[in-house]
Amino acid sequence: MKNQNIYKVDAHLLRVFLKVCELHSVSRAADVFDLNQSTVSNMMDRLRQAVGFRLFEKVGRNIVPTEDAKDLIPRAARIVSAIEGLPEAGTYDPSQDSRPITIVGNLNSMLGVLQCIQDAVRAECPSRHVRFLELGSRDQLEERLEDGNVDFAISVRTPRYPPSLSAHLLFEDRSVVYFDGKMRSAPTTRAEYFRSGHGVLDFGGYVRSTVDNDVRGLQAHRRIVCSASNASVLAHMIAGTDLLASMPSHLRLNVFKSLSWAPLPLSPNTTLKFDLLWHKRNANSSRHKWIKNIILEADTQGATQAILD
Description:
The chain is α/β, with parallel strands linked by helices. It folds into three domains: 4-84, Orthogonal Bundle (Arc Repressor Mutant, subunit A); 94-173 and 272-304, Periplasmic binding protein-like II (D-Maltodextrin-Binding Protein, domain 2, 3-Layer(aba) Sandwich); 175-263, Periplasmic binding protein-like II (D-Maltodextrin-Binding Protein, domain 2, 3-Layer(aba) Sandwich). It is built from eleven helices and twelve strands. The strands form four sheets. Strands 4-3-5-12-6 form a five-stranded mixed sheet. It has a three-stranded antiparallel sheet with strand order 10-7-11, covered by helices on one side. The chain has a two-stranded antiparallel ribbon with strand order 1-2. Strand 1 (56-59) and strand 2 (62-65) form a beta hairpin. Helix 1 crosses helix 3 (37-51) and helix 2 (26-33) crosses helix 3 (37-51). The longest helix is centred in the N-terminal third of the chain and has 18 residues, at 67-84. The model has no long low-confidence stretch (mean pLDDT 88). Keywords: DNA-binding, Transcription, Transcription regulation. It holds the Pfam family HTH_1. This is DNA-binding transcriptional regulator, LysR family. Belongs to the LysR transcriptional regulatory family.
């Protein structure tokens, strides 16, 4: 006989379950939804009774999903996305939509790509308002896309995205090393690179950059002497010094154009993958499908003039 408790499962219950899985904490998930911890605990107990297996186990101070719960996560995410996308399913007329298209990202780091996207949207619908906002740390991706006022995010790929988000490759690049050619020559060896002082972007999050991961893989470290949360500010801080900045090659066309650049003297020099991200609740939204198709069909890779070899 079918477990009748399964009919008591709703989208909100599954959303809370997904958040507990992501944060490994009932209390932190409760804070996100402005609920009492006991309420979330009771909700997880209801879900456990409905599915018929244990959802979490204790590991240190945190909880982690059981193997059965891990199998449930993608199915729960699909159900939540389908339900949340119902209100916007159907036909879409962009000329009748007054809402701005809102994209978040670290804007100074992708100026050419943003111009390409804006041109592509205007070619399809000249009156559409395209709004670009700063993202900050990649740790904030889910929080920003949970906001109903944000449509898409553009970010360097992370090892793992929250289960509520979908991603599609937008363009690729590699890092090069920037420096003031009036103050120093290009570093040609690893030893010279690691002896030098470095400036980096710092958005205050916990996700390491691709270059940091490459350096870590070499069991080395960079001597960081300055940091900024804005690529234009970082370029200004590098100018007039003997410091280095390891950044995507496409920045040589705009914010780093006053500096010299050279190949990054590291192996590996991992390819930077920039993704377009959106919340899965919009999977069935005809509006989001229209915007996404325009962005993905735009020549964003060509706009970067990235150096991939």
